[in-house]
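Why should sequence recovery work at all? Because a backbone constrains its sequence more than one might expect. Tight turns favour small or flexible residues, buried strands favour hydrophobic ones, and helices have their own preferences. The token representation captures these environments compactly. In the example below, the structure is given first.
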């Protein structure tokens, strides 16, 4: 609806400074108050069926009964609204329902700030500074509590029947559990569907990262509709591949090379890390598995006197390192690393860094869920995905079609 220029000029006729418009008692707040009260009076007229002072209302069984005060919070600050009443107490305003003390959109702002890692104290301070609105810690908790049900629905939603790649990893978060604060693992699963779209499949929490718990995570994914995973990228957790194969026996398990390189460099002092990392690159960037093994032997020969443990680490995990050598270079870039999970973890760590610890597992999962919703909005389709999908179709076309059958 277009507002007439004459009306605007009339409203601004006494304007001298910005505070006259946006100040504590400025035009905007007074205008919002007037419009709300006018709208509610119009709603009451409709509810009663007659205008104020209309004889039609005599002996109608219900009538106006003055007003009651109500404080409403919003971007404009706090407003004192006069809400009209009826004698039968049957009138319920639609524009400002009973018990609603915050305008639509105000709660969304609290949730948005919470999702970006702001603490309750910071949210209180921000709302006071920007909008002149005082909110209590209890209000912030009440608003964000509504997210808990959303988290439960999301965590139990149906999933795709097949994923081309699934990345599995864990993030450690400080939270209170059974009366004490401890580091607990939050398990993250990211799936890439056959269109190349990434999606966080779920978040799970446990005292530590173990293959037994991963077995329950994978079982949960299967119960939610996942029939098959072509490739599962994991870190070097002992027993992890066996847990995957117990639930998805045809999945190709690929060890995350980035995790393996990082574990290797833990043995190396800072001044030699660059050279060791460069020599390891010759192993996992080799053209074939045979060439990679020769380069690994060369690496061991070069560094075994100083860092024998690195060669042992790669030898022990070699069968889980080499599967991606069966693919061309552009496909390897898609499958050989859990960079997708690492990037997500970096984003989540930025969000939770302001928290010393969480009061409960539910509080931690609630914030992580909100944070990943913001992060995943920026995700794009995986690069080189069409080339990867063509290879998957050649290797596992029957599995893809079988999983897609209803």
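From this structural description, the recovered sequence reads:
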């Amino acid at each position: 609806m277009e507002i007439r220029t004459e009306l605007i000029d009339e409203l601004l006729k006494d304007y001298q400074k910005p505070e006259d418009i946006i100040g504590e008692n400025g035009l905007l707040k007074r205008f919002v108050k007037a419009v709300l009260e006018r709208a509610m009076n119009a709603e009451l007229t409709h509810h009663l069926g007659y205008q104020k002072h209309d004889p039609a209302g005599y002996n109608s069984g219900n009538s106006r009964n003055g007003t009651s005060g109500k404080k409403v919070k919003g971007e404009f600050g706090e407003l004192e609204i006069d809400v009209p009443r009826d004698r039968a107490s049957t009138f319920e305003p639609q524009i400002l329902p009973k018990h609603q003390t915050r305008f639509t959109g105000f709660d969304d702002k609290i949730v948005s700030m919470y999702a970006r890692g702001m603490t309750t104290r910071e949210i209180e301070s921000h709302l006071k500074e920007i909008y002149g609105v005082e909110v209590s810690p209890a209000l912030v908790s009440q608003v964000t509590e509504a997210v808990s049900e959303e988290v439960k629905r999301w965590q139990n939603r149906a999933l795709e029947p097949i994923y081309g790649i699934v990345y599995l990893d864990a993030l450690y978060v400080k939270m209170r559990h059974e009366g004490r604060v401890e580091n607990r693992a939050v398990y993250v699963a990211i799936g890439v569907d056959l269109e190349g779209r990434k999606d966080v499949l779920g978040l799970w929490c446990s005292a530590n990262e173990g293959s037994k718990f991963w077995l329950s995570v994978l079982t949960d994914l299967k119960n939610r509709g996942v029939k098959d995973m072509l490739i599962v990228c994991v870190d070097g957790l002992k027993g992890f591949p066996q847990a995957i194969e117990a639930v998805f026996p045809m999945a190709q398990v690929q060890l995350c090379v980035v995790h393996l390189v990082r574990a290797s460099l833990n043995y190396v002092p800072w001044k030699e890390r660059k050279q060791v990392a460069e020599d390891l690159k010759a192993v996992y960037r080799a053209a074939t598995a045979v060439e990679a093994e020769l380069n690994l032997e060369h690496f061991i020969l070069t560094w075994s006197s100083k860092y024998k443990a690195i060669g042992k680490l790669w030898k022990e995990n070699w069968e889980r390192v080499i599967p991606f050598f069966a693919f061309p270079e552009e496909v390897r870039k898609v499958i050989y690393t859990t960079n997708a999970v690492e990037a997500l973890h970096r984003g989540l760590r930025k969000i939770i860094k302001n928290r010393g610890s969480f009061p409960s597992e539910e509080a931690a999962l609630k914030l992580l869920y909100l944070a990943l919703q913001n992060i995943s909005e920026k995700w794009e389709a995986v690069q080189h995905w069409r080339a990867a999908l063509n290879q998957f179709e050649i290797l596992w076309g029957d599995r893809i079609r079988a999983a897609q059958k209803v």
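A few observations help interpret the result. The mean pLDDT is 81.
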